[in-house]
# Entry
Amino acid sequence: MFRPNRFAPALLAPVAALALGGCGLNSIPTAEEAAKARWADVQNEYQRRADLVPNLVATVKGYAKQESTVLVGVTEARAKATSIQVSAEDLKDPSKLQQFGAAQGQLSQALGRLLSVTENYPDLKSNTNFLALQSQLEGTENRITIARRDYNASVQSYNTLIRTFPNSIGAKVFYGAKPMQTFQATAPNAQAAPTVNF
# Structure
């Protein structure tokens, strides 16, 4: 007659924990939260830029009243860029990220036109406020680039984790995990080197 071992459940618990641990039950949410945190960093840098734009526009307005179309373009691009919000849930929707990236790209282009106004107004270059704001914007653009790179690296880690064995089992069974979208260039000729003419 078979007699069940009273220690069997106690022996199976660690084995089950190891098996489930091998399926990435803890590492999957950790990687997903890391990617969401990196996305928050991207949004933070875009917000920093959006906060700097009104100050830059006000400074330039005082010196370049004739360039009102450029200033209006920057203001409109900023309004559009800040109106498109991407939540953590939208990180798996490529169309949402494309919309967001396109709006941010338009703002970058408008800022480029605004900064080129300095070529037409030499007095503006000597204005300390303008130089400080221009430096802040350049630094912000660099920070945005770094934040997007860090986000993409975090998404790559998460996507790799949920697609590799044995983690893919836990990812599908317990979390229904789907790959996140990376941040991609939205400008049509982003890969082409810009031409500089003097």
